[in-house]
Amino acid sequence: MITYTCLVVLLPVKMAATLCGKLLQSRVRLPLTHNVRHMAKAVTRHRKPMHIIKQKLLALTEYIPPKPLAPPGALTPRARPVQEESALALILKRDVKTMFQECKMIAVIQDNATNTEDMLLLKKRLHKHGITIKFIPNQVMKSFLPGSPYSNLMPLFIGQTVLFVSKEPKVKEMLVSLRSSPQMVLLGACVDNTLLSPQGLLIYSRLPSVTVIQGELVSGLTMLTSQTASLLQRHPTHLSALLQQYLKQQSPEAGAEDTAVESSTTKAEEET
């Protein structure tokens, strides 16, 4: 029994000793230095490029999968219900048509959150010059403009807009009134069936009035007619004066008078 217990006790000790010996031997056998190669790896085989004919052949014989077909109900358009215009929209559309026919100036203004007091003051200033402010929905204007000669005004009706309308083209008065309200931005206008930008309206406001231009035109025409009349009458009057002088010289009385005048002049010269 004593021997058996001794063997049981000594076996783990031996196993531990053998393991430690192997680990120490493996550590001792490891080299102290390790060589590292810094140069590039020698490549002996290079991949050859594919021949152009083979590339073309592969491109021609490439498999193109067919596109998936759409389901039968996807291509048929859906029927949208046609919305009829309301009676109010038809009335406003008719009013817009009469407005474009009767008024010579229709300006599109963008309203950037103008309060009630400023709007009332602006209405009073414009009313003095015969300009009125009209609030018409953009939907009504967009439904009227495509079939009219004023279709180029359609891009201006975006957001909150108002219209300045007058029966006479009073562009200068409108621009002066807009200076006091910076919230109102001028986008464009239709003046005498002509679409104008803000720069065009500024140039139009600097032009003289129609009465001044008409007066200048009439004065220029009268001056030209008077000049042509004087030029046409010059030659006949000159010719008649020459003929009268010739007749006076041919008559005997005129010859005696001429000799008397000549003798008196010679006497006066001798006395001097």
Task: Give a brief description.
The chain is of the alpha+beta class and 272 residues long. It has helices at residues 2-29, 52-60, 87-102, 116-128, 138-144, 171-178, 198-205, 210-250, 252-271, and strands spanning 105-111, 132-134, 161-166, 184-191, 194-196. The protein is elongated, with a radius of gyration of 55 Å.
Which H/E pattern describes the elements?
Answer: HHHEHEHEHEEHHH
Helix run count: 9
What global shape is seen? elongated
Q: Tally of extended strands?
A: 5
Output mean pLDDT.
79
Strand adjacency order, main sheet? 2-3-1-4-5
Task: Please report which band the strand proportion falls in: under 5%, 5-15%, 15-25%, 25-35%, 35-45% or over 45%.
Answer: 5-15%
What class, by secondary structure content? alpha+beta
Largest sheet: 5 strands, antiparallel
End-to-end distance, in Å?
A: 196 Å
The poorly predicted ranges are 1-10
Gyration radius from CA atoms, angstroms: 55 Å
Helix-residue proportion: 55-70%
Question: What do these coordinates show?
Answer:
The chain is of the alpha+beta class. 55% of the residues lie in helices and 10% in strands. Strands 2-3-1-4-5 form a five-stranded antiparallel sheet. Strand 4 and strand 5 form a beta hairpin. Helix 3 crosses helix 5.
Kindly list the characteristics that best describe this protein:
five-stranded antiparallel sheet, 272 residues, alpha+beta, 5 strands, disordered N terminus
How would the blueprint of this fold be written?
Layout: H1 2-29, H2 52-60, H3 87-102, E1 105-111, H4 116-128, E2 132-134, H5 138-144, E3 161-166, H6 171-178, E4 184-191, E5 194-196, H7 198-205, H8 210-250, H9 252-271
Antiparallel strand pairs: 1-3, 1-4, 2-3, 4-5
Helix pairs in contact: 3-5
